[in-house]
Amino acid sequence: MPNIYDYWIPKVQDIDEFKKLADAEQPEIDLLIQKAKQFPKEIIVSTASNAGLNRYESMLGLHKKETTDLRRSHIMQNLNNSMPFTLQYLKNLLDNVIGKNDYWLEVSGYHLELGVISTKEELLEMLREDLRKKIPANMGTVVKVLESIGTNYYTGFYVQTADVITI
Q: How far apart are CA 28 and CA 53, in angstroms?
């Protein structure tokens, strides 16, 4: 790191009092340079360290989660806490929070089904809460864990559901 002493003219560099001042102020200048270099990493959630994540959590009023990845996902969900007006907006949000190939989404009429792969299961409860805030109130929501099964057998299923309303 640059030394403040090197920026002075030769006449000032020869004065003992200025040398002592430089020695006293240099640690502060080094810390300032280090913080300035670290700043761009801290404002991006995906690259933020523990201190940056703590700052986001205190700004958004969030409780600290167990793992760093879970904390990042929770912060991203809360930063994107606006109503998705389109299916594409919801897909982009899920791509950012969960991962592009780590979920299954099906929307038909007023019913939304979201499946999350089992390695992202810790996000399930958080997703349930946040989807309630993001999707319309008259839309039914199912959030579940998708489990991969290693087998050579292929099966097909057909499930039909109906609601009976008696007046």
A: 24
The DSSP element (H or E) to which 28 belongs, if any, is helix 16-43
Q: Which two tokens stand for residue 147?
A: 């489990």
| Strand order from edge to edge, sheet including 111-117 | 103-108, 111-117, 140-146
Beta bridge partners of 112: 107, 141
Closest of 14, 116, 36 to residue 73, by C-alpha? 116
DSSP label of 140: E
Residue 103: strand pairing partners: 116
- The residues near 37 (Cβ < 8 Å, ≥ 6 apart) are none
pLDDT of residue 25: 92
Residue 153 CA: distances (Å) to CA of 18, 96, 147: 81, 33, 15
Residue 80 Rama label (left phi>0; alpha psi -120 to 50; beta):
alpha
pLDDT tens, position by position, 45-64: 888 888 888 888 888 888 78
